[in-house]
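Input/output pair, single chain:
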Amino acid sequence: MQAPVAGRGKLPYKKIFLLSRKPSSQCEFFKVEEDEEGYLAYCKVLGRYLTAYAVAKCEKHWQTCPYRKMGLQIESPPESG
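Output:
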């Protein structure tokens, strides 16, 4: 297993982010990273790792997530007119 991606910094309280099972979300901004102790979930919009509580919400409610909506707006800003 690989360590968290370099440049994202250390996780001072890694245990609140560490997952024993590999999480899954259809959100395009959700990224799973393997750690020597388990899995970490990363949100590209927030630019940070997600707690186990947030991961559960992301897996179930990714379509209505306000961060996902924000990410989609950033990727394709409205045309000015």
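The helical segments are 52-61, 66-75. The beta strands are 30-35, 38-43, 48-49.
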